[in-house]
Amino acid sequence: MGQNFMPDQTLPILVPACSSGKMYGEFAPQQDKDSPLFRCKNLWQFICGSLNMGSAKKILIVDDEEDLCLLMKIYFSRKQYEVSIANTLQEGLAKLENLHPDVLFLDNNLPDGLGWDHAADILEKYPELELHLISAFHPNIPQNVDRARLRIMEKPFTQQQLNELGY
Hints:
By secondary structure, the protein is an alpha/beta fold. The protein folds into two domains: 11-50, no CATH class; 54-164, Rossmann fold (3-Layer(aba) Sandwich), CATH 3.40.50.2300. The chain contains five helices and nine strands, in the order E-E-H-E-H-E-H-E-E-E-H-E-E-H. Strands 4-3-5-8-9 form a five-stranded parallel beta sheet, with helices on both faces. The protein has a two-stranded antiparallel sheet with strand order 1-2. The longest helix is centred in the N-terminal third of the chain and has 15 residues, at 36-50.
């Protein structure tokens, strides 16, 4: 059974913005406006509101390596991005059409085709899209593609490399 708290009691609270998971204080139900935690709680609400959660950038990851997709999804979700995953080329192209993401990470060697072969068409159809071509191999850079609009990432890549993308 849950514990009942009286109005004059202080409740422990974890502030979600703190990655260390440490408790930063206590939240008094009367919400003392001079308390550091009240200010921290209000800061957290301000941060969440200023991120405009409804218009978060959308990222689509098309790769058949499910572990990599999951790790990337966790990484970008923590940064408040809306992340979708596809493990085949056809599934990825369908999600690209339906979701209209802002950013696409596209693997080359997929079970049902070569993702990079579609780079030129994708960039033409989605002029605002940021395209990242990823591969564990060294395939040729697609021809007839505006190379200024895409980035090539060789797997395995590090979290530092993802940080450097600026997302």
